[in-house]
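Example record

The entry below shows one chain as it appears in the dataset: sequence first, then structure tokens.
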Amino acid sequence: MLLDGDDWQRVLHGFARSAFRLETLPAYKVAGEAEEIEEFLNGNRIDPDTYTSGWTDRLKAHTAAGRTVQRVHIVTRPLSDYLRYEFMYYEPHAKAGEDIRILDLTDRSNPGLPNQDFWTFDDSTVVLMNYESDGTQIDRVLVEGDVEQYREWQRIAVAESVPFADYAKEHGWR
């Protein structure tokens, strides 16, 4: 089943305990970000200590309610311009309560994870995030049936990744 609009928003924000995202692409083409990326490449940065957004507000609300939000982003170095831009937002997102982790495959083999972005919610609902090769989103598809494989991929991704703050420190980010 395709998820769009209000249906997607209900799934994305209506979880009871946990939300997990696996990100596999070096770049995502998101409407409205082109100008921000250009500004980033020209040296403009956000202040991670004061930055707020709708997403950071939601993260704070989820955390206050005892819910967890976690992501693992699979990367290889050198990081794409998009990843360097996205990493700028990871620090304030982590401060707002998101557990952000990095799985760097530059010097190691993939531990068996798919080349497929997805979300899991409450260990029972899975949504596939489908993209064109340039990072343009195609659609979101609710997985119907057994989701055990996605729970296993989530387990592997978390076990094999490192916290964003540790990765950033090790690689001189920020």
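Notes for this example: Residues 81-95 form the longest helix (15 residues). Strands lie at 18-23, 68-75, 99-104, 117-121, 125-131, 137-142, 162-163.
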